[in-house]
Amino acid sequence: MAAPRPLRLLLAACAGWLALYELHVVLAPGLDAGVVFSRFAHDVVLIAAAVVCLARVPFVRGPERLAWALIGGGVLAWSLGEIYYTAVLWTDPDPPIPSLADAGYLLFPPLMLTGALALLRARARGIPRSLWVDGLTAALGVAALSAAIVFETVLDSVDGRSLATLTSLAYPLFDLLLLGLTVGALASTGWRLDRTWMLLAAGVSTFWLADSLYLVRTAQGVYESGGWFDAGWWAGLALIAAAAWQRAPSRERRPSEERVRVIAVPLAFGAAGLGLLVYGAVANVNLLAVGLATASLIAVMARATLTFGENVAMLRTSRDEALTDALTDLGNRRALARALDELLPLADPERPLVLALFDLDGFKQYNDTFGHPAGDALLVRLGGNLSAFLHGRGRAFRMGGDEFCALFQTAGEPSEPMVHGAAAALSEHGDGFSITCSHGAIALPLETTEPVEALRIADQRMYANKHAGRTSAGRQSKDVLLRALAERDPHLGTHAETVALAAATAEALGLPPDVVEQVRHASELHDVGKVAIPDAILGKPGPLTAEEWRFVRRHTLIGERIILAAPALARVATLVRSSHERWDGTGYPDALAGEAIPVGARIVGVADAFAAMLAGRPYRPARTPDDALEELRRAGGTQFDPVVVDAWCAAYAARALSPIS
Question: Which 8-state DSSP code applies to residue 151?
Fold first, then answer.
């Protein structure tokens, strides 16, 4: 969340004061500004930074609350140490080392370090190992440079007192750790523009620069209080306080993190370590800097090893995904092609390789009834059943959609038992559904030695098996419904010659054989829903009332429900539902118009009207075929599809039908 307005104003005031202070020191160092730029003024800025940082604590939860409490505590400790140092300077221009001020100063790095680690732990979950190594490389590279620039100078300048020596050396050591950690944390984010870590890194870097210049100048005996870099300490703490109020970034990895900079930046830090070692070969560089530079190169080598391992794993995963069906974990079509390429040249005619293809029957209706998630779960179950059945004897594949494949070798025995067993594994029955499968098989290399040809033949046999099964099941179901219709009222059936004429019309329109068969069945069954209409309405001698018409018009929906009880007739049910739609959109039950009406239903509508006109009704006499054909032509374009009417008339003329009674 954004900082509250008072805190934003406080930070802005601190930034403004620091900018004015720097301008004063650089451009007008001799100008007396009174208390505005006195040491006490900067103490106010430090306390303000501590308040802003600690004010963040109540607004966060979990590990981040502890992190900002520790970081804010470190800022406060350094500020209190500086206030004490300012007070001591009033009485002693050369305060002793160490003093209480050093206690405050030296509390800042461990508190800041611990808080930064807590913050990194809270925000860095799920970071890959390679980015952790990047962070370590960056940290070691920065620490090596810092050690080479600062540590040697400080070490040479300390006096013989052990406590003073430890105090003086503690500053660069802590700075090394703190700077390395913040740069490493930024690296572990993939060098994203995370404002929290960027401001922390900027604050620590500014602080480190001021500390380093102070230590070097003090070691050289030229340091004077109030110089231009003194503001680096204060600005560093203000930047850390501002970091506390930055919004936590999304954990989502972005494509930009995969770019060259992810590896280029750690390589740059490693190159800095290498350059330092080269420089150390011709100049005197302290042992700590050499050790850190060497460690940075080792980290770069570790990063290269990790990258190689990640690339190998990625290639392996890509290869597996390319050969595996994502839903069922079976081999896919590409895996089957590879298996055929490997096994077919080795196949023995006496122990043939059998390729069997399977296509589920009833799966579309299952999907429509129970939904696609349930359909996916069914495919997973059936795929598991097939794989378990073939375990140790062959391999299972999913070709896509609701098609599966089995590849197994026989020992000379017939393959039918295995094929039928696999088909049984791909079957499931339950309340309101029945899933079976059609199949086709081929023996290799007895029938072909070409994988593409083997798949083509097996596919042809599978669809021949499917068509035969549908025809048989559909015919049996249709016969049962027609018998029920005849028992209800013999006049509800459709004359055989009208059915034949509907099929001939479908053929004349170029419809495929399976659709022609559906039209034939729909022509016979389109009135099956009238079994639910009372005899008083069906046999009424006069015109029907509006209420009676509403009742009659339900028969297409009732017929659809009856026919859907036979899964093999599912497509026929659709034609029956739409058989009373009109070309102009005024029909029922869905008010479909034009091409939106299934073409088979348009043919059935013409067949029904033609048969009704030739048959007598209690309220009107039968018409002649010529009158009926003329009426169809007049209704073409309004009630009927004119193209279907023309095809019907042509088919009637070609068959030379006698009047239908």
Answer: I
